[in-house]
Write a structure and sequence with these properties.
The protein has 359 residues and is α+β, with helices and mostly antiparallel strands. It has helices spanning 17-23, 58-63, 66-82, 95-109, 113-116, 169-194, 201-206, 276-281, 336-344; strands spanning 55-57, 85-89, 128-130, 145-152, 210-218, 230-233, 239-244, 252-256, 259-262, 270-274, 291-293, 301-309, 315-316, 334-335. The strands form three sheets. An eight-stranded mixed sheet has the order 1-2-10-7-12-5-4-3.
Length: 359
């Protein structure tokens, strides 16, 4: 069988990295090769994967005695303020369900391209299969395939994008997403308490919270030093929850103290990060953190990400508790739906999207 020309491998107009991987091109297509300033630092000179990232014991928050709850809430507050990223153990999500979700996601990505293309992501949208945040033919592409679905509220769902294969995929996403919603609601309660607010402050403010799921698949890459798995960005959500598939190499990096720091994830833990919404509401006390993903030469990486954000109708601005003579108001009042639209119709460029909300 004749080799497939690289130019013919597309998802719509976008190159599909899994198909590229199959033909093992001797050179990385120009569309993926990053400018020198954007390329990941060679792994040998990177900081060692961080073991300092805070770890929160969820069971101490939900089932602990008064002293344990207070101690863990303070620890959570410090994690939000000093890191913006933290891992959660004993999160009450069934580990078997997490394994099934991981298996279903992997099975979806291993389907023939023709099957996955039935659920193709339309340009300018973020639901379906392909690559999001691509707006021009000369824009550099990430070494990643994505599959994303809107979960809640019901009206954001596109039923045509929910796959028929694997057979139990959609049912698994439903059950998994319900559990992730509980995690987000519980964490926001204790994040509120850690800020000296009422525990239900975010629940009341957010209305029927918007929830989405995105699966990211990063195939191995013969030249990981030339590409990025996922461009640097902060999340437009309030909270983001990441599950990394077992056996995945270190791929996620966060920008801390102007250095890209690789994150070593604890098996069965969930990784949580603060999104732009919480940065605005706390007037910058808690900051969303720029992060990116890098590719690996020999191993693939799979992550399953849940985004949790306010209802599109909600008007957001810094809460009065975080605005005074010493802390002037850094962000204007805006509609969250308008911000979400702004976020998904711009390419990922660090924290540039948040300029939308700045005064």
């Amino acid at each position: 069988m004749a080799p497939v020309p690289i130019s013919s491998i597309k998802v719509g107009h976008i190159d599909d990295v899994q198909e590229l991987r199959k033909i093992r091109p001797k050179t990385i297509p120009e569309r993926f090769v990053r400018d020198m300033s954007e390329r990941p630092t060679p792994a040998i000179t990177l900081s060692p994967p961080s073991s300092d990232m805070p770890v929160i014991d969820f069971s101490k928050l939900t089932k602990g005695n008064t002293e344990q709850i207070q101690t863990e809430t303070l620890k959570l507050a410090d994690a939000c303020e000093s890191w913006g990223f933290f891992q959660v153990l004993n999160h009450e999500v069934d580990l078997t369900l997490m394994e099934i979700m991981e298996k279903s996601s992997r099975e979806f990505f291993m389907l023939p391209l023709e099957e996955k293309q039935k659920y193709q992501m339309a340009p300018g949208t973020v639901q379906g299969y392909g690559q999001a945040f691509v707006f021009s033919e000369d824009q550099k592409l990430d070494w990643c395939n994505m599959f994303a679905l809107g979960i809640e509220p019901q009206f954001i769902r596109n039923p045509n994008l929910w796959p028929k294969k694997p057979a139990t995929f959609s049912e698994t996403v439903e059950v998994y997403s319900r559990e992730m919603r509980k995690v987000c609601q519980n964490l926001l309660k204790y994040i509120g308490l850690g800020l000296g607010l009422e525990g239900d402050v975010f629940e009341k403010m957010f209305g029927v919270a918007v929830q989405a799921i995105r699966m990211n698949y990063y195939p191995p890459c013969s030249r990981p030093d030339l590409v990025l798995g996922l461009s640097p960005h902060s999340d437009g959500s309030a909270l983001t929850v990441l599950q990394q598939a077992k056996g995945s190499p270190v791929g996620l990096q966060i920008l801390k103290d102007q250095t890209w720091l690789p994150l070593q994830l604890i098996p069965n833990a969930l990784l949580i990060n603060i999104g732009d919404t919480i940065e605005v509401l706390t007037n910058g006390k808690y900051k969303s953190v720029e992060h990116r993903a890098v590719a690996h030469k020999d191993k693939d990486r799979l992550s399953i990400v849940t985004f949790y954000a306010p209802s599109y109708e909600v008007e957001l601005s810094p809460m009065q508790e975080f605005v005074d003579e010493k802390n002037t108001c850094k962000y204007r009042r805006y509609n969250h739906g308008e911000y979400s639209k702004h976020y998904v119709t711009n390419k990922l460029q660090g924290k540039k999207t948040l300029d939308f909300a700045k005064i």
